[in-house]
Amino acid sequence: MADVTLTTLQGLKQKGEKIVMLTCYDATFAKTASEAGVEMLLIGDSLGMVLQGHDSTLPVSVEEMAYHTACVKRGNRGAMIVTDLPFMANATIEQTLNNSAALMKAGAHMIKVEGTAWLAESIRLLAERGIPVCAHMGLTPQAVNIFGGYKVQGRQEAQAQQMVEDAKALEAAGAALLLLECVPSELAARITQAVSVPVIGIGAGSETDGQVLVLHDMLGLSLSGRTPKFVKNFMAEHGDIAKAIAAYVAAVKAVEFPAAEHGFSA
Length: 266
Ligand code: KIV
Prior knowledge:
Elements: H1 6-15, E1 19-23, H2 27-35, E2 40-43, H3 47-50, H4 62-75, E3 80-84, H5 93-106, E4 110-114, H6 120-128, E5 133-138, H7 144-147, H8 157-173, E6 177-181, H9 185-194, E7 199-202, E8 210-213, H10 215-218, H11 235-238, H12 241-253
Parallel strand pairs: 1-2, 1-8, 2-3, 3-4, 4-5, 5-6, 6-7, 7-8
Helix pairs in contact: 2-4, 4-5, 6-8, 8-9
Bound molecules: 3-methyl-2-oxobutanoic acid.
GO cellular component, one term: cytoplasm
Family: Belongs to the PanB family.
Binding site for 3-methyl-2-oxobutanoate: 45-46, 84, 112
């Protein structure tokens, strides 16, 4: 695969071809996933849960994110590498800039931050300094203690309208990508129409510009024994990791995944 850049992603959005993102935390999976056609590898702070066994993403450090980013970089074959800024790593502007720089130096091509319109100033500063930013909205797991659990966001019209406005504000601030987690499918479609940057969804229906899943979820592996509604186990039919990842890529490209049953209504 030729190196995936922001221009590639914009081209895919314009063509109406879905973008495929998958979480990834090490070199071997990075090689396997990028060779299977995954265009974006996300070093998500979900690693705190699926690799480290914590019950939330909050304990993850910048050093751990940098370590896994460097591992993924060594195995990657052309995908764009996106790394999460973990909990409180963007508590101040100075921390945002220094921690983002550390993750870019470790191998990230883009930084992902969780939040709403309050992120605008830091997104602007990062973009001005050459760091592309993905703004993660909707169910942002770092705010699980504010939400009172992992709950669908944007079900009330007032909250939905606010999310549309926030998405436009973050695009105007310079966000290169938006990611929507656990929002009603019709709201995700509305936001995707309202902005010109690509929008990736997880639990957000099929009308976003692309999809992401947590690697362990789509391979049918679960520490808690609970599988979110928006997950499909691609190992069940394929029994081989490389084939399961290739099937995920094909299903997203063919708009067969996610199906209606993986989405949420308002
Ligand atoms: O940390 C992560 O893996 C994520 C995805 C669930 C989008 O943010």
